[in-house]
Amino acid sequence: VVIGGYRLARDAALKALRAAAIDHSDDEAAFRQDLLNIAMTTLSSKVLSQDKEHFAAIAVDAVMKLRGSTNLDQIQIIKRIGGTLKDSYLDPDGFLLDKKIGVGCPKRMRDCKVMIANSPMDTDKVKIYGSKVKVDSVAKVAEIEAAEKKKMLDKVDKIIAHGCNVFINRQLIYNLPEQRFADAGVMSIEHSDFDGTERLPLVLDGDIVSTFDTPERVKLGSCELIEEVMIGEDKLVRFSGCPNSQASSIVLRGANTHVVDEAHRSLHDALC
Questions:
Q1: 166-169 and 187-189: which strand pairing?
Q2: By three-state DSSP, how is residue 110 classified?
Q3: Residue 86: CB atoms within 10 Å
Q4: % of the chain surpassing 90 pLDDT
Q5: 3-state SS class at 89
Q6: In terms of Cα–Cα distance, which of 91, 94, 72, 70 is closest to 80?
Q7: % residues pLDDT > 70 (the chain)
Q8: pTM for this model (two decimals)
Q9: Which DSSP symbol is given to 47?
Q10: What angle do CA 68, 73, 78 make, to 5 degrees?
Q11: Which of 259, 250, 237, 238 is nearest to 81 (CA)?
């Protein structure tokens, strides 16, 4: 009896919702206005209520770029202290990575072929776990270190042989491989972190690589331009002309950490 009552209530609620529903999916302008109204309603009781029109437009533009996809991981939100909430914006044609380009590497690259990797690039010193190496002279230690460095340089040469002109690694890139990349004219970006490494294949349409012995099986990412840009007082890396135009980056500005964090939570509610 109780379950039967719940089912009657469900049917009555669905009937009322369908009767009140308005479908503007065939009219892009009206559909966008509906989304704006929903977003503004969501933001009305939050810290962004004073600028709800501005942030509603940002949220709707980001969601419209998804073209029906529900994968909100393609929308990246970057928080930067400084300026006011009205200085926040949606990057119109690009993706931002909160990292810096390696020392000595090109700071601007066109027609980019990007390798996205998750591989240790810090083995330019002896690393042996669970065993000991005994030598009878300092020269022998130097030989071991030289062998380790040669191993790393050979690894870098394998990466360059893939034909990439941009190398992005989730892990650190030590000075030795970074210098070899710079000498070869390859832009290197280290420590892209988990979120960046997961989003970049979606944005650039490439694979995440951890071994470099089979270049014919590796799909490199691509974009028209990679460059360093200034946002506030910080440098970020911007990817323009990406194959996946569904991905986007939203930059949130605010006077302090509390304001920016509250804006982030409010905007996330609007996006959902």
A1: parallel
A2: strand
A3: 11
A4: 37
A5: strand
A6: 91
A7: 97
A8: 0.79
A9: T
A10: 120
A11: 259
